[in-house]
Amino acid sequence: MQVFHTQKFVRTSPRKLRLVADVVRNLEPNRAVELLPFVGKRASIILQKSIKTAIANAKDQGVTGELVIKELQINEATRLKRGRAVSRGRWHPYQRKMSHIRIVLEQVEKKTIDKVKAVDNKIAEKIDKKSSKQVVQKVKPEEAQKKSKNK
Question: Above 60 in pLDDT, residue 147?
Fold first, then answer.
């Protein structure tokens, strides 16, 4: 099941938001919320709030289990056209850029999570076996030295 969230007319330029969005694009939403305060950009706070809202929307819709950020889009919104008065009665225009944030969260099936955990357990067992063999190999030469000293 997919959950959609759109935050419209955010008063930050899309370029600034995309820099932060690239950091979190492939993470789980909860992990992204934990990571964003440490990015060091003002746009990270805005994106963090949007992801929290998307997670809350998923809970309201009854989605349980693991969620994954399937899509994170930062699009351009309308621009506010402003200007600044300069010398000799002239006018220099500039634009206040705004953004739309679109987040799609997808529920991951339990089967795939179980498969990932099973693979992780197998890898952990292999590492444990290798490390125990290394410990045994390291102990044997020391035992040999002790035996030779005892003789």
Answer: no
